[in-house]
Protein: ATP-grasp domain-containing protein
Organism: Heliomicrobium undosum
Amino acid sequence: MTGPYVGILAAGEGSKTAPFGRWSPAIAETVNALRLRGINAVAVAVDDLGQKRFVRVWRPGVGHRWHGELKAAPKILYNRILNRSREHRPEVQSLLRTLTQQGDILFNPGYLSKAVLYRHLSGSAVADYLPETSLQPAPSDVLAMLARRSCLYLKPVDSCGGRGIFQIRQNGPAWQVTEVRKKIALTSSFHERQELLAWLDRLLHRREYLCQQALSLDRIDGRPYDFRVLVQKDGRGRWTYVDAGIRLAAPGHVVTHRPNGGRILRREQLLRLRFDRFRWKAIESEIAAAAIAAARALEAGSGEHFGILTLDMGLERTSERLWLLEINAKPGRFDEPWIQLKSDYLLASYIRHLAARRGEFHENIYSP
């Protein structure tokens, strides 16, 4: 294949049949999608890189088989290490730094911490879209925010997919705590202030959390929904809005993530049940502008290089105010096929742009 040469960076497992362990199917999807669009994409284990001139690269074959061969190390790399703890290992962080220091192009360099993300965005043009947030709160800080807000969330700064999130709500003289665990919403109550403080003290000592204002998100059939928004860089290296999927929480749940029981809501359903087309057009226009502004602010604040991001955004129920809830630098593939097709096309276009900038590829970078 003569197209731009790019490596999909993954966590290796040393197996010929599944060289990237349980993430092998996801890595294969990305490699195949790019190869179908003329990109000479291969998968490479992060442990094999560094200052080596030749590395073992992998291509998916027929029947879930993989083909490995020694080739020149790719100089353009898309980070798809889909294991946070693996990526945070000191030796992996050292390798990632080495790649950028030696002049390789590495985009989407790592998972985003919720705390770091808030620091980058809180002084930016999208600050007004952020809920009130307290970083590394003490138990007394949580109770102080709860007195002002009556409902809040405790979120681990290093988690994704809605895991480890607690909702705390003032319920008369008691406090109600709800956690989603394996698609089951677990609720407990504390009737004494000291009981709640003791529970918070244990929780906040085990793991780093942030405390965030709970939003009364818009609902359909009593269930909150939000938007999974996709932005990517195009064939000229500019951020562009791709589309937004809609996710509806399971009955009785506080998060919309599909692993926690959330489901896809089609846009036609949203228009039929909640908005007319004119109102939706205005909402989507604001979503697009805010998402692009957030992507630019993240790059400017972090000094890192990103090419694709998903953002969780939601509407407040009464005011229809738009809020930015989360940004993800390791997005999964979209369940909506029309969104994923646009995403694959833009990713291939952006890689052509990067290759042209490096002088490695002389095809028209705006070609499909």
About this structure: The CA atoms of residues 183 and 260 lie 4 Å apart. The chain has nine helices and 18 strands. Confidence is low (pLDDT under 50) at residues 362-368. The chain has three domains: 5-111, 132-213, 218-355.
